């Protein structure tokens, strides 16, 4: 997408060209173009920001009551009607507050006929692309350095703008051009000046300049001294002052102005903005919705539908692309999950094969094998070793022995070693509970070799360390079963 920021100047347009992708804006070039060339250039732009002249603009700042914006515009219109010959219906009025920390409202008003006349410089197709019509006074509030005053120098007028109003002077850069033309005495001074400007060097340093360059430099200084002299009586207190030059000057002219004596206006050097910088500031303020825009009502942006249509098509295409990317992403995720599930199933089969003996046992088979494993009756799948009685099974057996009713026993450790050696460590508030625990162990036919160990009593707590053997469920010896079966067969034969 391409767009332009422009202003009318010297029978043509000063144009800044920008390209825009999403929210990123890139400056491409600045140039002066005559009316015909500008019309061709405007065909390539999606929209145009137009800076209108401040000479016929009414600008002032005043304290108004804090009311709704619609009511405020009515109050401002009444003030303008009472103080000027204009009527509300004939004006474009915008009211904004650009002064931080101040309750004053900035009022911008322009006659509709003035704006219509300014737009006649555009052909019909270009006029429909005008997104914004911005008064140049807005630049006073857009400088990076807060300003006390600003001087605008344009073709046939100059302005001094303050926070609360402006002063207009007839005459501008056309006077400087006339003075420079007088330096060339040939048959076509304009052609000679244009030819000289195309090859002229930097005029900001006086050393090494040709005779014509020295005269041009002096002419520039003389013009701006005269201009600043006109505004000196209105300068007021010193403060940061910017000079906005609305035309093309010889190379180095901006630096010449910057280095001129600015003590009447400012404690520091002039801040100088060329036309390219000004147009860029205008478009940036329009994008940020921090400006005054007269492209409403009679001058509403007529290219908006086409512009929005293009944006809608782009948005729809991006939406479709996003949906496709989402579908592809989901398919990739499903494939990844399928692979992980398959790998998990493979590991499960391997584990089931190693532990239970089958890759996919039925629920009944699995529960049966698990029950036998807990009781220490199931053999490993490889038939080389026998599962011992499990810790879970042993704890299930002995827990009731020390958790009887009103028991004060607190077990801190249960250790289960090979060959069924079990040790229980804990404390109790009474020796009777420890004795009862021991008695219950002695009553279990599968428990033997009970060793009470030493019981230590400190305060109201007695600690114990009891060990015993747990035989577990008895398993028949496979060889004994074979012998018994063989003996039975012999007895049958004898009978």
List the helices and strands and how they pair.
Layout: E1 2-9, E2 12-21, E3 24-34, H1 35-42, E4 47-52, E5 58-63, H2 69-83, E6 91-96, E7 104-111, H3 112-119, H4 124-127, E8 130-135, E9 149-153, E10 157-162, E11 165-170, H5 173-181, H6 189-199, H7 211-231, E12 241-245, H8 253-258, E13 271-273, H9 275-287, H10 304-355, H11 363-374, H12 391-402, E14 410-416, E15 421-428, H13 431-443, E16 447-451, E17 456-458, E18 461-470, H14 478-494
Parallel strand pairs: 1-4, 4-8, 9-12, 12-13
Antiparallel strand pairs: 1-2, 2-3, 5-7, 6-7, 9-10, 10-11, 14-15, 15-18, 16-18, 17-18
Descriptive overview:
It is a single chain. By secondary structure, this protein is α+β, with helices and mostly antiparallel strands. It has two domains: 2-302, Nucleotidyltransferase, domain 5, CATH 3.30.420.380; 391-470, 2-Layer Sandwich (Gyrase A, domain 2). Helix content is 41%, strand content 24%. It has helices at 35-42, 69-83, 112-119, 124-127, 173-181, 189-199, 211-231, 253-258, 275-287, 304-355, 363-374, 391-402, 431-443, 478-494; strands spanning 2-9, 12-21, 24-34, 47-52, 58-63, 91-96, 104-111, 130-135, 149-153, 157-162, 165-170, 241-245, 271-273, 410-416, 421-428, 447-451, 456-458, 461-470. The strands form four sheets. It has a five-stranded mixed β-sheet with strand order 3-2-1-4-8. A hairpin with a 2-residue loop joins strand 17 and strand 18. Helix 5 runs antiparallel to helix 7 (211-231). The protein is elongated and about 135 Å long.
